[in-house]
Write a structure and sequence with these properties.
Elements lengths: L1 H8 L6 H8 L3 H24 L6 H9 L3 H24 L7 H18 L10 H12 L7 H5 L14
Helix pairs in contact: 3-5, 3-6, 4-5
Amino acid sequence: MGTMTAYLSGTNPIIEKELEFLESNPDLIHWSFKILRLQDDLGTSSDEIQRGDVPKSIQCYMHETGASEEVAREHIEDMMRQMWKKVNAYRADKDSPLSQNTVDFMLNLVRMSHFMYLRRDGHGAQNQETMDVASTWLFQPIPLEDNHMASTAPTADEFPECSFS
């Protein structure tokens, strides 16, 4: 549902072949949104459990295996790494029925979840750091010319052990 909404609201033209592929619920969508879900669990589960919410993947793994929370979190992170490998392999597949723009659009949603939940719950209980970064991205101009950039390049004198030639 999220992928279809994102695809249909994008600025690229809608291509029937891509739409049919997305409707077939391919593994790419499954892996991508599972990563998003697990990232959310890693960032929010402790706070949500304290608020009386239902158990998340971490608590389910702890219950099923008797593992500690730390071990369960490591397991979830490993699951996400394995899914990212699959997603990246798909992204590199030149025979994909999806355009690179569509794949990138979908993966940017997943990448966003890493940012939102990197330091706990950046969505439901916004912290100042998340708000500051989002505000900077949305409202601060990006300098097109920065005179300081040219003067900060390293020189051979500063790093004699490196070869700059």
